[in-house]
Amino acid sequence: MGRTIGIDLGTTNSCIAFSDGGHPTVIQSKSGSRVMPSVVAFSAKGERLVGLVARRQAITNPKNTVNSIKRLMGRRYAEVASHINDVSYEIVENSNGDAAVRIMDRIYTPPEISAIILQQLKLTAEEFLGEEVTDAVITVPAYFNEVQRQATKAAGKIAGFKVRRVLNEPTAAALAFIEPEGRKKLAVYDFGGGTFDVSILQVVDGVFEVKATLGDTNLGGDDLDTKLVKWIMGEFKSETGIDLTRDNIAPQRVREAAERAKCELSMTQETDINLPFIATGESGPVHLEITITRKLFEELAGDLIKKTIPLCKEAIEDAEMKIEDLDHVVLVGGSTRIPMVQKLVEEFFDRRPAQSVNPDEVVALGAAIESSVLTGQRKDLVLIDVTPLTLGVETLGGVLAPIIKKNSPVPIRNSRIFTTASDNQSVVGVHVAQGEREIIDGNRSLGTFELRGISAAKRGEPRIEVVFEIDASGILNVSARDTTTGQEQSIKVNPSGGLSSGDIDRLRREAKANAEADKIKMKFVSLRNESDEVIYRASKSLAVAREELDKESWAELETEVKSLKALRESDDSLALEKAIDEVRQLENSLAKMIEMFESDEEDATSEFLDSISHIEDAKE
Ligand code: AMP
Q1: pLDDT at 475 over 80
Q2: For residue 221, how far is its CA from the centre of ligand 1 (angstroms)?
Q3: From the DSSP assignment, how many helices (H) and strands (E) are in the chain?
Q4: At 307, is the secondary structure helix, strand, or coil?
């Protein structure tokens, strides 16, 4: 086995580091660069260019230059369709619906392009270290779902690495920033080129635990550039009447200049953009000359930057902490160099973010530290990851019964007891879903299976144990077992398989927005379930009491049951509650009478547990 390195495979830039005796060092290229642009280009001669050389020729070869490939990793074409105009190369749909890139009539998958970047990084590391590099720890945004992590792993494999671990970027940052001894809580605010993430971590004597993580995979420095690009092009058009968006080369030139201006504005209050010969007008060549102030940039991009703060608030709440509980705030990613970002972060967290770490290098350094843990050089650290969304099963009335709550540390095993919803039901359908909505339809379905051979029993009597188990690599195994017969069925699902990061963001947002509506729906679901339960019990009592007991009570209960049945579907919750109450009271007194007459009669009711839905479908 050769050396293991840590790789921060960034949207805009990548950085690598190695660990010697547990101490991480950034690997420099021959020219002394500590980061490499994550850019790949294909020249007319068919040469592959990577890094700075690829970036430098982007202006003259925009269609064959691929940047920000990380945004396409593990994504469906439909999810990225809205970003197609943000890049100068062609994004296409693969035969399986995934996003891919077309360069000179050849289709490349995102892992293939990322692999070209990784290969170059491998080469740089081998030159620097003077030995073969075989293994890698590669970082990904904490919010990457399973498909995106698999795509990253695939890229590493294509590049010839044995990928020892796919590590969350904020965890890597925390590893590099904090001394493992003692007990500390920290927030990692990671604003890069393509994504934003915030994670809340707790470190207790070398055990790093991500308490909560939240992000927006469609928010990064590139989006701030887009705001500037649109403004510059708009100004240019109103001054000259020329629409630069139609040109082949001009948009790329403007984008480059906008990004440069944005970076300069992190140090100065004002900067000029000069792009000679950007277009040709009626009277010859036209030049673009424009001044941009920091104030203007903040006006244009402020709303996007401000979007990060509510996510920080939510992450702290998810971690069940308060701002004052935090010991440190660590900034990661190039976009945290923007003064407005630093100001907002300082105001929100009520403390100065740590200045001791370089936001471009801290993730790679953390990855190198993790590599030293994996190779046994360091034994004082342990990492614990969490699940990003709640996992559960569908129960009667289309409600999600959570079994593993979001932000639970993995590996994890949780179980819950369910039961049948009708007498002698021999099959239950187990529908596994992921999301934060109480109503099942708002969540992402992960799979369904049936548990058959449930022993004949009254509804509510069988005890069916549903177990959710997530292993260290994030694979979920769900099993259901009839505790009486021992019958068991199980499926393996990928907790975020098929769930795009966009889906995760959407699910979280929708859950919030729909919380009120769901509450109302939930009330009706529970009232209807309650109606079913009392109707069931009353019907049993009526059947037993028909001959023996006082006709009046019997008839009264029967009438009330009929009216409750009629009301079951109504949306008058008060009337429904009242009818349930009537039936329950009448049934109780009838049941008491039955008890007195038939003291040995077995109680027809049983404790009403959560009932697995699909009962109807599953009935044999
Ligand atoms: P990363 O993904 O962490 O490499 O961050 C790259 C993003 O940070 C890109 O959008 C860069 O334009 C942005 N960036 C880098 N340096 C600065 C800076 N000094 N000011 C503003 N943005 C920057």
Answers
A1: no
A2: 6
A3: 16, 28
A4: coil
* Closest atom of ligand 1 relative to the 10 alpha carbon: 2
CA–CA separation, 177 vs 434, rounded Å? Answer: 33
Q: Whose CA is nearest to atom 1 of ligand 1?
A: 192
Helix runs in 249-332, H state only: 250-264, 294-306, 308-318
CA distance 511 to 507: 6
pTM of this prediction? 0.67
Is 222 near ligand 1, meaning CB less than 6 Å away? Answer: yes
- Range 354-357, long-range pairs (CB < 8 A, 24+ positions): 354/177, 354/328, 354/329, 354/330, 356/177, 357/173, 357/176, 357/177, 357/330, 357/331
422-435 residue pLDDT tens: 888 989 889 988 88
State residue 450's pLDDT score.
87
Catalytic residues: 8, 70, 169, 190
Pocket test for ligand 1, best of 335, 337, 342, 365 (most atoms within 8 A of CB): 335
Task: Give 127-181 pLDDT, tens digit per residue.
Answer: 999 999 999 999 998 777 667 877 898 899 888 898 888 888 888 999 998 877 7
Give the Å distance between the CA of 213 and the centre of ligand 1. Answer: 22
Tokens of 497: 């398989």
The answer to whether the CB of 337 is under 6 A from ligand 1 is yes
Question: What is the pLDDT confidence band of residue 125, given thresholds at 50, 70 and 90?
Answer: very high
